[in-house]
Amino acid sequence: MAASAAPGTKEPANLYTLSFKFNLKHDLDEVYVAMCYPYTYIDAINFLDRICSPKESPNIIRRTSLCKTLAGNNLEMLIITNFTSSQDAIAKRKCVILSARVHPGESNSSFVMEGLLQYLVSDEEPAKVLRERFVFKIVPMLNPDGVIIGNYRCSLSCHDLNR
To answer: Which of 19, 20, 46, 121 to pair with 74, CA 20 to 30 A apart?
Structure first.
């Protein structure tokens, strides 16, 4: 039964709450509940190793490190375009900048980024057109330290990078 709005308001008159209970087999069992399926820093690095191999994406993708994080991890950046073009042609292309995982707990963005990257380096004709027209600069995991230590919104220094 759906909540109905009170007369003259847009707010529901009744609110419903979903609740559940865990029945653990042993008193000392530990249970972790995730809002989304995890996507770890190692998952990201393994994916980047695969997609950036010369065999997989020759003349399409370049991988570099923007900087080191506070914990000493690489802040990875990918550049995707048609690198077989002349330097002048590449310099004239508009740049598209994309990033994901500013908030470590939003692991769903890593799955979206993975799909986007797979598409941009694919043999699909629209992807080839995109690479001819644009230079994509992509930071697939903007807050790797926060991801590694399991924060939800903050970096290693306990700052929300969106603020």
So the answer is: 121
Q: Which of 95, 98, 87, 78 is nearest to 130 (CA)?
A: 95
Task: Find out whether 99 and 161 touch, Cβ atoms under 8 Å.
Answer: no
**Crossing angle of helices 125-133/108-120, nearest 10°?**
90
- Residue 149 is encoded by which pair of tokens? 């230590």
Say which DSSP state 6 is in: P
Q: 3 near 15, Cβ under 8 Å?
A: yes
With 0-12 / 13-18 / 19 or more C-beta atoms within 10 angstroms meaning exposed / middle / buried, residue 86 is exposed
Q: CB neighbours (10 Å) of residue 109?
A: 19
Question: Domains in the chain, ordered, with CATH?
Answer: 41-149 (3.40.630.10)
pLDDT in tens, the chain (163 residues): 455 555 666 666 677 888 888 888 888 888 887 778 899 999 999 999 999 987 767 799 999 999 999 999 999 999 999 999 999 999 999 999 999 999 999 999 999 999 999 999 999 999 999 999 999 999 999 999 999 998 888 988 888 888 7
